[in-house]
Protein 1
Amino acid sequence: MVLAKVIGTVVATRKEASMDGLKFLLLRQVDTDGKESGGFVVAVDAVGCGVGEMVMYASGSSARQTKMTENRPCDAVIMAIVDNWEVGGKYKYQK
């Protein structure tokens, strides 16, 4: 699982039929301080999140293990909206 911030949406009107009805979001990885630090990824939204939210996503074969993405050609899925995290006893992010 990786921490990321939802920075946008992705629309694909033509896609594999099994992907119809799925919402795609553009994510940017963040560090433990919540600062954008890593690369970008397009992920399927399995939890109903929106732009600006901090999320956890899974990639690879793990991305196909949610009810929404099972047996679909998906390589990244948002499976949690983050409420907060702490490092060393200090909150680094709170929703």
Protein 2
Amino acid sequence: MLTTEQIEVWIRAGLDCTHLAVDGDGRHFEALIVSPVFDGLSRVQRQQRVNAVLREHFETELLHALSMRCMTPEEFNARG
């Protein structure tokens, strides 16, 4: 069964993350990803960056569903 820890390893291997939190039930997952890589990118472009990192896992259907919230460090810190 796929774990949240494994997804975190995959994301961290492909993105410079200052904060990463993944939650899920083994099939459906959600992630809060904070990275300076997202600076200047639209919401869709940010998700495309994450999807590119995880592409092979989606293609093999090891990872079925991931909803994500992608933020820059500045956006994350401004949340209060």
